[in-house]
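Feature request, filed as a ticket because there's no other form

It would be nice if the structure record came with a short human-readable summary line next to the tokens. Right now we just get the raw output. Example of a typical job, pasted below so the devs can see what we mean:
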Amino acid sequence: MQAVFYGTRGSVPVCEPGFFEFGGNTTCICITFNSGRIAILDAGTGIRKLGIELIERGHEQFDEIVIALSHTHWDHIQGFPFFKPAYDPRRNFTMAICGVDGAGEELKRVLEAQMQSEFFPVPLENIGAAFRFQQLDLTDYTHPSGVKVAAHLHNHPGGAYGYRIYEGGKTLVYCTDIEHGDTIDPDVVALSRNADLLIHDAQYTPEELPDKTGWGHSSWEQAVEVAEQAGVKKLALTHHDPEHDDPFILKMEKACQERFPNAFFAREGVPIDL
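Raw output as currently delivered:
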């Protein structure tokens, strides 16, 4: 299994000098499985570049590509209308998120809303590719490909889901947009237990966090604590604050690695092999 970040930024994208090393696109990760098939986590602005690369390299996974969303805040869906493979009528996509509505109508409605004529010239129903919407109430799920997924609802305004993805003896855990509060969420630790790679929200410094109560995010120190309690092998910190430039994040990364050497702040375009 391999993970590549196409968007590492939280809240809003940034495109300014001093933000290039870690990237300025909002959240999007491409997972490549041992079979060569891919899945996508979140559809922030980074999904635009991912789509361009898939077309340029002649990617032919036409039967199904899963796009799994942690939640539907704008920075996690705003790139979707600019995802070029979605306009290819040969392709089939499953848009998935956890929930209790098995038909996925609420998820479909959210994506339709940002593509209304007031906001975008092409409505969802005319986009080209075939889309299936799944909003599953799941704790454990095995995809027909054999990939196993578990999910957990955690604390974020409106709610957000973390995912545990298992294939071929390797485990990746994706846990962004989480506010632990005064103590670390034990369910997040359980979801992350012994993961080969934990991807965790680290938008704030420990010093910034007290002033951000209720904003729905974590500090790098909290992410490290989850990794330590769960016994994970590698920790990738993401959802970088748009106010944090490269020198600022490098300083945070150094402090983080002094406590957890196998930790790093996510950089766009850098493959992570499990």
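Something like this underneath would help us a lot:
Residues 2-273 form a domain with the Metallo-beta-lactamase; Chain A fold (CATH 3.60.15.10).
The chain has a mean pLDDT of 95.
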